[in-house]
Amino acid sequence: MKTTAKPIENLINQLNKLPGIGNKTAQRLAYHILDMDIEKVKTLSSSIVEAKENVKECSICSNFTDQDPCGICADTRRDESIICVLEYPKDVEAMERAGCYFGMYHVLHGVIAPTKGIGPLDLKIRELLKRLESDEVKEIIIATNPTVEGDTTALYLSKIINPLGIKTTRIGYGLPVGGDLEYYDEVTISTALDNRRELK
Amino acid sequence: MKTTAKPIENLINQLNKLPGIGNKTAQRLAYHILDMDIEKVKTLSSSIVEAKENVKECSICSNFTDQDPCGICADTRRDESIICVLEYPKDVEAMERAGCYFGMYHVLHGVIAPTKGIGPLDLKIRELLKRLESDEVKEIIIATNPTVEGDTTALYLSKIINPLGIKTTRIGYGLPVGGDLEYYDEVTISTALDNRRELK
Lengths: 200, 200
Description:
The structure is a homodimer.
Chain A: H1 6-16, H2 23-35, H3 38-54, E1 56-57, E2 64-65, H4 71-74, E3 79-86, H5 89-98, E4 103-107, H6 125-134, E5 139-142, H7 148-161, E6 167-170, H8 186-194, E7 197-198
Parallel strand pairs in A: 3-4, 3-5, 5-6
Antiparallel strand pairs in A: 1-2, 6-7
């Protein structure tokens, strides 16, 4: 019954570990890879390591980037008086796709989730507070997802940022509760931005 | 709008080329990979190239293997008088999973598909005929998929093998027409094997 060659089995196991890739899909992908030209296989393989090795976090906003500061932080045309706080780098892409926001970003790389042992110190909150010392920031838009963890994080941030005299707002509830920012269309994101309300 | 770092974009593009991986999934996978430990990323990356580099075709049955001859061809307990002809290596796995067949295999690496420019010379048919010269083969079970191409290939094979005095059978139509062998359960495959009929 054990007829699959070890390198194939190994590849299937590795692919199987990726999110949303079940055993069946991993198998399909593995056999597809075996049918590809060796050059294309090498390109695929190296693109994985190269992405991991060449992509760092921006020293300002903590978004993924291959140059520091990242393209957005380095863009002088953007409004530096406003920072949109997001959970993950993919959320920056979702915001940029919406094309309606021209301020800066700050990526937390997570949310406060006590059940998973993730506290404020595990997130890029110190880095955010440091930006507030030096920058002339007038508003922080907290655009964490409308989930329990996202709301908790928003409340926490507003409690430590409001005393600094900076307005904190929460992205509008145009988003269905329990959802994930990554999946919304431009109009929903744009509406949610317009509906933002101040956290006091 | 072009805010994604190039190595990320490159990785997304590479993943996007894999079958069944759309742009959205490619993005999810890419960001997941960026969040993985570098060691795990390297393991994933090298498993891809290693599978491609270390897996060859068995010189007897043309199945993928990391040793030549493959484990099945080298297994003296198997019945050498019967060869099951399959489209792809993944079909060997499906057959072995069914656990009801103890003969040998021959993998064609495709089917005759004139519309795609694939003729008999593009498949491992010469290799099959060579086996029939030397081996004491009494029956060829043609288990290509019950599609137009699979049936065409079966008919072609029976026409060139029958004159050699070797019985050719077609795997039974327990399988729904238009399907793909890879997806069937043990019982269906086992029934289909029992229902095989001779091609005259």
